[in-house]
Write a structure and sequence with these properties.
The complex is a heterotrimer of chains A (256), B (306) and C (368). Chain A is of the alpha/beta class and 256 residues long. Chain A is built from ten helices and ten strands. Chain A has a domain at 1-82 and 161-167 and 186-256: P-loop containing nucleotide triphosphate hydrolases (Rossmann fold), CATH 3.40.50. In chain A, 38% of the residues lie in helices and 24% in strands. Helices cover 35% and strands 28% of the residues of chain B. The chains are: A alpha/beta (256), B alpha/beta (306), C alpha/beta (368).
């Protein structure tokens, strides 16, 4: 039996109740180092609530979650120091320059001035954005902004990075470049915890969980999920599970 | 061939330095679902706002139902339905109050056109006394669609109706649009999701204010000429770099559970597998495939980048 | 017409569905008037006074007693000479000094004009002026009672000033002014925010694409808020009458008619603002901050317009509040009718029309 600290994310019976509404209902899963874990679910299935608990923003009602070795209930501040977070809605300050954003986040995570300087340089070179360092982030195309945001979320070398719909609205090429950045980070040992509405992206994950009405309805590799539900792709698996009806399978296929 | 209901000629629009639309030419036929597909910032919203008379073009001309979007804007406003990209109903009013309000300001009644919205509205009617702000994303969509349809428009404009909603609601929305099409409505819809192209009768790819291609989804796929292969096996990250290192490979992209590879010349699939085996010692499977819509868009993007 | 009714109904729903804003809109004026009314009135009571009275004769003691008899002054001490006054001022012991000329009574009996010197601390000019006026008034009163026939021209002058506010109550001046300022700011704020909210929430896009005419939107926005502002105005008036005992001497119907006119003017100004700005935040900033200063300073609420330099006096003509303050003071305190305020009423009507027409003209039928 392995210890819970061997996992980067360890979740046991995690539950969150708002009033009489059970948003997250005893979910269980474990994520290993270097995994790309796809966290899918319909709107309102409890995904956002679960992520808020895992990132230390919301205290669980019951159950436990250990992220990067720290209990989210007892040590939420330590959790925050050891994770990276990036969301589609908010990531960088549009009215600050590229370099200022990098410096700001590096500073927030307590990097020394020397480190900040070294990391900024390396990060900009890696992204081919050295020439853009004095540009306001608001002036960058969305794809660039999201790539930069991802790099910034990784600046303090977190054990795990949470990406909340990072590729929404990004063009198909940039979207793939973004995923290659994710792969690179994963190969280097960073664990990726990602949500997305693009279900082809679910195929890029090492494992995928699908949340329906507060519970995890399925959790496996994309390939096994496809096999299990007799689906051609993850889109079908998702629609099947999220609707909770198997009869629709034929209908979806017919439409294709 | 059916009549064109939207006609766009050499339309351009800039915001300050940014050229949002650059010499757009398009024609949308009566009764079709026309998809405008492209990423954020491509100019989709600007084009829809010009067609719904919310913005003035800098140059060029556009007509909707034969009426000029600049000159005849008042008439067009009576004839089109519009669902903006962000939820734009009154969140502090209930479902029923919203619908009634929009029916009245469009000078009609719910009763008069109920048949149009019946299928959609019935799904949310049990909650009609709930405030719009408390609805789920999918229900908001249905309400917004009902409100946009209540005055029986000839053309329905939907700006990214599927953005930010889950895959189930997306499937439902396309079902609804298809039903509306059967009732004779022309539907002009924008989306960033490539795989939704197959739901449209014809699509236009848009990128940085330019239309890259206009055709039926089948036509777009058929006109794709490069040889393309699906590669599986090994770890994605190492594999994609190994593939790109090969001389014969033009481009390699992640694609679902596979990597799509385009080459400069037609090759036998084994040729690629052997090359990877020799270089990296990886066992992969390669098969030649038919390109899908997204491959086509990516290829078009590469053409304008290079 | 149906569309307009539907629009008005919708606006009322917005108002009632947002109890917090409603509370702020109705509650804020109440708090303001009570604060202003009690704390910042320029009525001063129990001001410490030092008296220098070398002769201490019949009239000086009588006059001093009369001055001290009200609630306004408390005797600090009698000082032997004027020189000690400054010490008392510096120590902050007194607010005012009263210096009688030697041989005061004799001079008065001889029919001369003996002098009283009133020394005030002008670092606080408002208080100084008020205290000065109190003493002048009491003195004139005394002189008049003494020789009704030989009233000095100065005394007559004082009488005119006191005519409508015999007790010199600050509240009388403040309540009409406050009603004006509050109605102006709240109305402009409500209408400008309500329209910019539609822009911010994106509902404006749908309204624009609908066949609804601009003038319908503007009227539909103004009408519900007329009722709300009227409610506000009534509450403030009631507070003024029952808490601060300010009289309403004129015709109530006329008063409310003028209040409605002023509300419509303010609401249309708010609408005009909102046709120019895109966010609620900016609308709030402009309707509160940018309107507040000119309205308070240039309307005659605090500073008399007659004393302003000419350019400011001219600018003050453009301030709707200036005209309404004249109207409301005339109706409430003097009890006059339309014959005396038709000019100001006309000006306000003109302004309201101008704001409405300008709003319709400025209302963008598109997004840019």
């Amino acid at each position: 039996m392995r210890e819970q600290n061997d996992y980067i994310v360890y979740v046991k019976d995690l539950t969150k109740v708002f009033g009489d509404f059970v948003a997250v209902d005893k979910i269980n899963f474990r994520v290993e180092k270097g995994e790309i874990f796809g966290f899918l679910g319909a709107n309102g299935a409890g995904k956002t609530t679960a992520i808020k608990m895992l990132t230390g923003l919301l205290a669980p009602t019951s159950g436990e979650a250990v992220v990067a070795g720290f209990d989210v209930r007892r040590e939420p501040e330590k959790v925050k120091y050891n994770i990276g977070y990036m969301s589609q809605k908010f990531s960088l300050y549009d009215d600050l320059k590229v370099s200022e954003n990098i410096r700001l986040y590096a500073g927030i995570y307590g990097l020394s001035r020397k480190e900040i300087k070294r990391k900024s340089k390396a990060l900009l070179e890696e992204l081919n954005m050295v020439a853009l360092r004095d540009k306001l982030v608001g002036e960058l195309p969305l794809g660039w902004k999201q790539k930069l945001a991802f790099a910034v979320a990784m600046i303090h070398e977190p054990a795990v990075v949470f990406l909340d719909e990072p590729t929404s609205g990004v063009d198909p090429i940039t979207r793939r470049q973004f995923w290659e950045m994710i792969y690179k980070a994963s190969v280097a040992g960073t664990t990726i915890f990602i949500t997305t509405h693009y279900l082809d992206e679910a195929e890029y994950c090492t494992r995928v969980s699908i949340m329906v009405d507060g519970v995890i309805e399925a959790l496996d590799t994309p390939k096994n999920l496809r096999l299990k539900y007799g689906a051609d792709n993850m889109q079908e698996v998702f629609v099947l599970l999220a609707r909770g009806e198997h009869t629709l399978q034929g209908k979806i296929k017919k439409e294709k | 061939m059916k009549n064109s209901i939207i006609q766009i000629e050499q339309l351009s629009k800039s915001f300050g330095e940014v050229r949002a639309l650059d010499n757009i030419n398009l024609s949308v036929r009566e009764g079709e679902i026309f998809g405008l597909i492209g990423p954020d910032g491509a100019g989709k919203t600007t084009l829809i706002r010009i067609l719904t008379t919310l913005l003035l073009p800098d140059t060029g001309k556009a007509t909707v139902t034969g009426r000029d979007v600049v000159r005849d804007y008042k008439e067009i406003r009576k004839l089109v339905g519009y669902m903006p990209g962000v939820f734009s109903l009154y969140e502090d009013l209930t479902i029923a109050e919203n619908l009634k309000f929009f029916a009245t300001i469009f000078q009609t009644t719910i009763k008069e056109n109920y048949h149009l919205i019946k299928d959609i509205y019935q799904q949310i009617e049990p909650f009609k006394d709930r405030r719009a702000g408390q609805l789920s994303g999918g229900m908001k969509q249905k309400l917004a669609l009902s409100c946009a349809l209540i005055h029986k428009p000839e053309v329905l404009f939907l700006d990214e109706p599927t953005t930010g909603i889950d895959a189930v609601s997306r499937v439902e929305l396309w079902d609804m649009l298809k039903k509306l099409k059967r009732m004779g409505l022309t539907i002009f819809v924008s989306t960033p999701y490539m795989n939704e192209a197959s739901m449209c009768d014809r699509v236009a790819f848009i990128q940085k204010g330019e239309i890259l291609e206009v055709d039926s989804p089948e036509g777009i796929v058929a006109s794709y000429e490069e040889p393309i292969y699906a590669v599986e096996g090994g770890r994605f990250y190492q594999l994609i770099h190994a593939l790109r290192a090969l001389e014969m490979v033009k481009a390699a992209h992640l694609f679902g559970e596979t990597i799509h590879v385009t080459t400069y010349r037609r090759i036998a699939p084994e040729e690629l597998a052997r090359a990877i085996k020799e270089r990296e010692g990886m066992d992969i499977s390669v098969r030649e495939i038919e390109a899908n819509i997204e491959d086509c868009f990516i290829s078009k993007l590469h053409q304008i980048i290079h | 017409m149906n569309a307009l009714l539907a629009f008005i109904k919708k606006e009322f729903l917005h108002i009632f569905r947002d109890p917090r804003s409603l509370l702020i809109i109705v509650g804020m004026p109440i708090v303001q008037i009570i604060l202003f009314g009690f704390a910042i009135t320029n009525e001063i009571t129990e001001a410490h006074i030092a008296v220098v009275d070398p002769s201490r004769d019949e009239h000086t003691t009588a006059l001093t007693r009369k001055i001290l008899s009200g609630k306004y002054f408390i005797l600090d001490e009698y000082l032997p000479s004027e020189k000690q006054l400054e010490q008392s001022f510096l120590k902050g012991k007194i607010k005012v000094g009263l210096v009688f000329e030697p041989g005061f009574s004799q001079k008065l009996e001889r029919g001369e004009h003996p002098q009283i010197q009133i020394v005030t601390d002008a670092t606080d000019p408002n208080t100084a002026t008020t205290l000065y006026n109190y003493i002048r008034a009491i003195t004139a009163d005394y002189a008049l009672a003494l020789h009704p026939s030989k009233a000095t021209p100065g005394g007559i002058d004082i009488r005119t000033r006191m005519l409508y506010n015999a007790q010199l109550k600050g509240v009388y001046f403040f309540v009409p002014g406050l009603i004006t300022i509050i109605l102006m700011l709240i109305s402009a704020m409500m209408s400008s925010i309500s329209l910019t909210r539609e822009k911010e929430k994106g509902t404006m896009e749908i309204l624009l694409v609908s066949p609804l005419k601009p003038v319908m939107v503007i009227i539909g926005k103004v009408i519900p808020y007329v009722f709300l502002s009227l409610l506000n105005g009534t509450v403030i008036l009631l507070l003024g009458v029952y808490v601060f005992h300010v009289p309403i001497r004129g015709d109530l119907v006329l008063l409310f008619g003028e209040i409605i006119l002023f509300i419509i003017t303010s609401l249309s100004l708010g609408i005009l603002i909102s046709t120019k700005v895109e966010t609620q935040q900016v609308a709030l900033l402009i309707s509160l901050m940018a309107l507040m200063l000119p309205t308070i300073i240039l309307s005659g609420f605090i500073f008399p317009i007659e004393n302003m330099p000419l350019p400011l006096q001219m600018i003050s003509n453009a301030i709707p509040a200036k005209w309404f303050i004249i109207i409301i003071k005339n109706i409430m305190l003097k009890g006059v009718g339309m014959a005396y305020i038709w000019k100001q009423t006309l000006v306000l009507t003109g302004m309201a029309l101008f704001f409405i027409v300008a709003s319709v003209k400025n209302y963008k039928t598109r997004l840019e």
